[in-house]
Backbone:
């Protein structure tokens, strides 16, 4: 079956712009989480959506937002981009998310560069 | 979230077993031990998880200490494709366990 698909794979944006990243989970998975990975901070949790509702949120400013559609696809948006937002953004899907008997399947990520 | 401690890096020869340790002295009774690995230029990949008993799957084995304060991920025969960063993560099975808290992980190098 198809894995987690993230688009685009690479993106270059200018400081102050906004960006929208997309994630299509594995078919049947209802939980979608987003993570930011940088060399300095490592992998950090952004937020998680389940059945179109944000269920958990990490410690990121309000410029970072997301949503989930009825088909479980998810988008995350970053407004007023800063140089420090340059990172690999990873999406992960899971059947239920909170159930610790299920693992997460990650996509290959979107590499965002802010110049 | 309870924290885990892992060595920064380890080396192994190909075809030999690898034992990746993880300390989690503050683990609670409701925490599951999960392992993920991240290969170069890819997202993390689920490897294995357990609660109290040792676990085996096609990728690896997980040995959990009797007091649960440490665990070891065992790769029975390392290959070059196993070179990755391995993360040991605790997940609470109560409340809002919908996130993974990654530490710095162990970078495994596999040589011929």
Residues:
């Amino acid at each position: 079956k198809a894995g987690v698909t993230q688009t685009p794979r690479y993106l270059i944006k200018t400081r102050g712009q906004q960006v929208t990243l997309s994630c299509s989970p594995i078919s049947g998975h209802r939980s979608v989480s987003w993570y930011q990975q940088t060399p300095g901070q490592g992998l950090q949790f952004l937020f998680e959506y389940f059945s179109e509702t944000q269920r958990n949120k990490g410690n990121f400013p309000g410029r970072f937002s997301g949503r989930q559609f009825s088909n479980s696809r998810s988008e995350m948006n970053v407004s007023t981009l800063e140089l420090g937002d340059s990172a690999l953004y990873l999406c992960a899907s899971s059947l239920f998310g909170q159930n610790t008997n299920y693992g997460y399947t990650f996509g290959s990520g979107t590499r965002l560069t802010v110049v | 979230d309870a924290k885990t401690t892992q060595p920064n890096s380890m080396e192994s020869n190909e075809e030999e077993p690898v034992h990746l340790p993880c300390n989690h002295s503050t683990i609670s009774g409701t925490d599951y031990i999960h392992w993920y690995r991240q290969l170069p230029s890819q997202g993390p990949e689920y490897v294995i998880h357990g609660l109290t008993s040792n676990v085996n799957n096609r990728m690896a084995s997980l040995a959990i200490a009797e007091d649960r304060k440490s665990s070891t991920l065992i790769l029975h025969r390392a290959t070059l494709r196993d070179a990755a960063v391995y993360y040991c993560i605790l997940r609470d099975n109560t409340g809002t366990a919908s996130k993974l808290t990654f530490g710095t992980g162990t970078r495994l190098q596999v040589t011929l």
Remarks:
- Chain A has a mean pLDDT of 94.
